[in-house]
Amino acid sequence: MQKLLINGKRELSGSIKISGSKNASLPILAATILCDKVKLKNVPLVKDIFTMLELLRFIGLSATIQKKNGIIQVICNKKNIKTLAPYNLVKTMRAGVLVLGPLVAKYKKAKISLPGGCAIGTRPVNLHLFALKKLGAKIKIKNGYIVAEAKNGLRGAEIKFPSISVGATENAILAAFNAKGKTVLKNCAIEPEVKDLIKFLNNLGGKILIKDRKISIAGSSKNLKKNITHEIIFDRIELGTYMIAAALVGKRIILNKIDPKIVKKEIEILKKMGVKLKSNKTSIEILKSVEIKKINVETKPYPGFPTDLQAQLMVLMIKAKGKSKIKENIFENRFMHVPELKRMGANIEIKNKTAIISGPSKLTGAEVMATDLRASVSLVLAGLVADNRTIINRIYHLERGYELLEKKLKNCKARIKRI
Ligand code: UD1
To answer: pLDDT digit string (tens) for 124-139?
Structure first.
C-alpha cells in the first residue's frame, strides 16, 4: 500500500493553481442524466469523479475524459438506460445517491443502493427521500436498496426541509427540474456548489431562482439545449486547505484561479488568527505569519465555516497561542484526526461536540493514518509543520478529493514523496 512521506519544517514559497470543485462536479455529473450532450471543463481528476463516471457508464451514458485539460464529455443517448445504482459503486462514494432524483424524474423509476454509514457519522438519506416523496415518488427500502417509482411522473410541490442538507437540496432540485409544475424548496443548502448546479441547469434552459434559503424551480423544462458547456467552480475546500498550509509554513504563497468573495468566512477567520493575507479578484497571497492567535470557531452550513475545513483549521490552532475551540455542528463523529494529532504532540481535549486545543505545541513527525478525506489532509498539514519525518498511511482517502496534492506542494518546495 502506498504511503506519503513528508520531511517537515520546510518553508514553502511559490504559487498553486486551485482545481475545480469535486463537490460541484458530482451533482452536475448526476445532472447529465437529464441532458443530451454536455462538456464539463475544470473537473478535478480525482477518485470520486472516476467513481461517478463509472456509475454513469453503468447506467448507460457515454463518458470520456480528456486527462490533459480536465474536460469531461458526457452523452446520454437514452437507449439501454439502467435505472440502477449498485452497491459497489455507491458504497465508496455517497454522492452516488444523487442519481436518484434525475433517474426518477426522467425514467419514472430508480433502484439505488443505500450508501450506509461512513467514518464521519451515520449519514442518513432520509431528507433526500422526504423531498422525492413530496414530489410524488413512491419509495420502499428493500434489500439495502431505495426502490423509487413515479408511474405518472413527478409533480411540483412546496417542500420545507426540516434541516439543511447539501445533497438533499441537490437531489430535490434535480428531481423537480423535470417534474410537472413549479416546486418551491425552503430551508435549502446554499453552498456555492449548489449554486453551480443551478447555474448549469439554467444554462441548459431551466428557470431556477434562488433567494436566501428558498429555491424555486419552474419544472417541466422543455426546449432544453442539446449541447452545453459548463466550467466547474473552483474547489473552496482545496483553497482553504492550502491557505492553512501557507499560514503554517508559507514564506510567500499565491493561490490562483479562485474568487475570494466565496471564501469570506475563511478569510475573516484566518485574518483574526493573525495570518497575513491579501486578496485580489482571482488570487490570494499569504505571507509568513509572525504569531498565530487563538480563536473559537463553529462549523455551519454555508456561508458559515465549512465542516470540510475543521480538521485542517485544527492544525493551525495547535500553533496558536492560548486555548482555541472548534465546535463541530454538522457531523457527529468528525474528530478522528485528533488521536493522530495528539500522537504528534498536540494538546487537544474533546468535550461533546467541541475540541479544545491548547497551544502552541511543537509537533514531531510520526507514522499516522486517517479514516477520511479531510482528516487525512490535516495530517499532511501537521507533517509539513512537524519536526522530522511523518509517514501517512491510507492515502487513498486523499486521492478521493485532492488533485495533484504532492505535485502542488512539491512545486512550493515541500519535501513530500509517495513510497
Ligand atoms: C456534502 C459534501 C461534504 C460536506 C457536507 C456538509 C458533497 C459530495 N459532499 O455532503 O463534503 O461535508 O456536504 O457540508 O457535496 N443529513 C440527514 N439526512 C439526510 C441528509 C443529511 O440527517 O438525508 C444530515 C447529515 O448526517 C449531516 C447533515 O445533514 O449531519 C449535513 O449533511 P449533508 O449536507 O447532506 O452532507 P452531504 O450532502 O452528504
So the answer is: 999 999 999 999 999 9
Domain chopping of the chain, boundaries: 4-18+235-418, 22-231
Grid cell for residue 253: 504563497
Residue 142: which H helix or E strand, with range? Answer: strand 138-142
Domains 4-18+235-418 and 22-231 share a fold: yes
| Cell numbers for 314 | 485544527
CB atoms under 10 Å from CB of 7, counted, come to 17
Cite the DSSP H helix spans in 177-290: 192-204, 236-249, 264-272
Least confident of 23-37, 76-90, 271-285, 341-355: 76-90
Nearest CA to ligand 1 atom 3: 308
Q: Which amino acid is at 316?
A: L
Cα of 334 from ligand 1 centre, angstroms: 12
Q: Domain 22-231 belongs to what architecture?
A: Alpha-beta prism (3.65)
Segment (H or E) for 5: strand 4-7
User: Measured from the CA of 163, which atom of ligand 1 is nearest?
Assistant: 29
Ligand 1 pocket test: pick from 28, 98, 123, 169 the residue with the most ligand atoms within 8 Å of its Cβ. Answer: 123
Q: Which CATH architecture has domain 4-18+235-418?
A: Alpha-beta prism (3.65)
Catalytic annotation on 118? yes
Q: Which helix (H) or strand (E) holds 100?
A: helix 100-107
- What is the pTM assigned to this prediction? 0.97
Average pLDDT over residues 245-268: 98
- 121 band by pLDDT with thresholds 50, 70 and 90: low
